[in-house]
Design a protein that fits this description.
Order of helices and strands: HH
Number of helices: 2
Low-confidence stretches: none
Membrane topology: Single-pass membrane protein
Strand content: under 5%
InterPro entries: ATP_synth_B-like_membr_sf, ATP_synth_b/b'su_bac/chlpt, ATP_synth_F0_bsu_bac, ATP_synthase_B_chain
Protein name: ATP synthase subunit b
Family: Belongs to the ATPase B chain family.
Shape: rod-shaped
Helix content: over 70%
Number of strands: 0
Largest sheet: none
Subcellular location: Cell membrane; Endomembrane system
Mean pLDDT: 87
């Protein structure tokens, strides 16, 4: 065999193999590479979108937490105000009840004082009659002198 012919056939086989590879092998490989590249790009985009969604979700969570805290503080303040108003109402009711009981006690005391005075008047009148009886050494009839005793009671 001739070296030139060998080189010619090797070159021809090389070009045929190169043409075959470029025509039938290379397109599916580039297509697979492009698909893989696209999948990787889609995955990276999805990861970026996931990061953005996560950041948005965390921002919403922080807003929800802040609103929940402020709402909780508002409810606590309302509860404290309501408790204070209930205590104040109870205090007012207790004060009015105290005033009513005090007025009733004063009225009862005045009645007792009046009864005691009336009792003392009757006792003083009885003692005055007994004293007058002893002074006069005779019996004084209380029934006949009732008017005199009533005037004496009124003066006392």
């Amino acid at each position: 065999m001739n070296l030139n012919a060998t080189l010619f056939f090797q070159t021809l086989v090389f070009f045929v193999l190169a043409w075959f590879t470029m025509r039938f092998v290379w397109p599916p490989l580039t297509k697979a590479i492009d698909e893989r590249r696209q999948k990787i790009a889609d995955g990276l985009a999805a990861a970026d979108k996931g990061k953005a969604d996560l950041a948005q979700a965390q921002a919403r969570i922080s807003l929800i937490e802040a609103s929940a805290k402020s709402e909780n503080h508002a409810r606590l303040a309302d509860a404290e105000k309501q408790a204070a108003s209930i205590v104040e109402a109870a205090r007012g009711e207790a004060e009015s009840e105290r005033a009513r009981i005090l007025a009733q006690a004063k009225q009862d005391a005045e009645l007792e004082v009046g009864r005691a005075r009336q009792g003392l008047r009757e006792e003083v009148a009885s003692l005055a009659v007994k004293g007058a009886e002893k002074i006069l050494q005779r019996e004084v009839n209380a029934k006949t002198h009732a008017e005199l005793l009533n005037q004496l009671k009124a003066q006392l």
